[in-house]
């Protein structure tokens, strides 16, 4: 099943609660939350207090992407605030295995994010324990960047790697995804699609419906193969 995960980094924080309600009414299941510490990536975004605030009125799956140094020290705070999935970067973890194990022990889903320059072999020691892998199709830390087309081959290679290992792991892609290129992304093997500006700029329901129409076209392609 293909899922849309709108990134609230592109939302209007003056009416964030209203926009999340529109997402839920539009059938969205995931909400992507980019947490940036100003250290691992240059920008600073938000943390557990914001997540706790929106958790009170939302039943969406909170897909929390930690772009922070040594995320293991913050895992409990994000669990308590309402995270369902926690994604970490191998470059930011001194002990990736321990970090993933800690997320799983907390009863949350665990994911690893790979920057554009990060090789798939970074997953070798933890792949069997992951629920999802996030492929960054832009450099992390900034919204509104253009999709890197070379990411498509990385998605294909990851899909093959997961298949050969006999695992069932979601492939998420984040960065520059819009209505024009999302079909290429899901054809490559992704099934969780992060999009910010293309969802939140303009009419949210219309934007979400356009994504769903594309997802359905892909499903029809697969059904007729």
Query: Given this structure, which CATH class is correct?
Result: Alpha Beta
Structural class: alpha/beta
Distance between the termini: 17 Å
CATH topology: TIM Barrel
| Tally of domains | 1
Helices and strands, in order, run as EHEHEHEHEEHEHEHH
Order of strands, widest sheet: 1-8-7-6-5-4-3-2
Binned, the helix content reads: 25-40%
Keywords: Carbohydrate metabolism, Cobalt, Isomerase, Manganese, Metal-binding, Zinc
Cofactor: a divalent metal cation; Zn(2+); Fe(2+); Mn(2+)
Protein name: Ribulose-phosphate 3-epimerase
EC number: 5.1.3.1
Please give the structural blueprint.
Blueprint: E1 3-6, H1 16-25, E2 30-36, H2 48-55, E3 61-67, H3 75-81, E4 85-88, H4 96-105, E5 109-114, E6 132-136, H5 151-164, E7 170-174, H6 182-188, E8 192-195, H7 197-200, H8 204-223
Parallel strand pairs: 1-8, 2-3, 3-4, 4-5, 5-6, 6-7, 7-8
Helix pairs in contact: 2-3, 6-8
Tag the structure with descriptive keywords:
Ribul_P_3_epim, 19% strand, 8 strands, manganese, alpha/beta, 8-stranded parallel beta sheet, D-ribulose-phosphate 3-epimerase activity, 225 residues, cobalt, 36% helix, TIM Barrel
Write structural notes for this entry.
With about 220 residues, the protein is α/β, with parallel strands linked by helices. The chain has one domain: TIM Barrel (Alpha-Beta Barrel), CATH 3.20.20.70. The chain is about 35% helix and about 20% strand. The protein is built from 8 helices and 8 strands, in the order βαβαβαβαββαβαβαα. The chain has helices at about 15-25, 50-55, 75-80, 95-105, 150-165, 180-190, 195-200, 205-225; strands at about 5, 30-35, 60-65, 85-90, 110-115, 130-135, 170-175, 190-195. It has an 8-stranded parallel sheet with strand order 1-8-7-6-5-4-3-2. β6, α5 (about 150-165) and β7 (about 170-175) form a beta-alpha-beta unit. α2 (about 50-55) packs parallel to α3 (about 75-80). The relative contact order is 0.16.
């Amino acid at each position: 099943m293909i899922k849309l995960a709108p990134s609230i980094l592109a939302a209007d924080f003056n009416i964030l609660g209203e926009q999340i309600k529109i997402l839920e009414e539009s059938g969205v299941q995931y909400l992507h939350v980019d947490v940036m510490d100003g250290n691992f990536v240059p920008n600073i975004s938000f943390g557990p207090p914001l997540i706790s605030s929106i958790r009170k009125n939302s039943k969406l799956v909170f897909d929390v992407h930690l772009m922070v140094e040594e995320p293991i020290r913050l895992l409990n705070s994000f669990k308590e605030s309402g995270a369902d999935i926690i994604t970490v970067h191998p470059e930011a973890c001194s002990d990736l295995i321990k970090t993933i194990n800690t997320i799983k022990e907390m009863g949350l889903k665990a994911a690893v994010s790979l920057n554009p320059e990060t090789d798939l072999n970074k997953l070798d020691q933890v792949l069997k324990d992951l629920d999802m892998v996030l492929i960054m199709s832009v450099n992390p830390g900034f919204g509104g960047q253009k999709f890197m087309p070379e990411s498509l081959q990385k998605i294909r290679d990851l899909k093959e790697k997961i298949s050969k290992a006999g695992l069932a792991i979601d492939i998420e892609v984040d960065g520059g995804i819009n209505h024009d290129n999302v079909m290429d992304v899901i054809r490559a093997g992704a099934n969780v699609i992060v999009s910010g500006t293309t969802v939140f700029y303009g009419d949210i329901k219309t934007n979400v419906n356009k994504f769903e129409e594309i997802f359905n076209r892909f499903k029809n392609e697969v059904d007729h193969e």
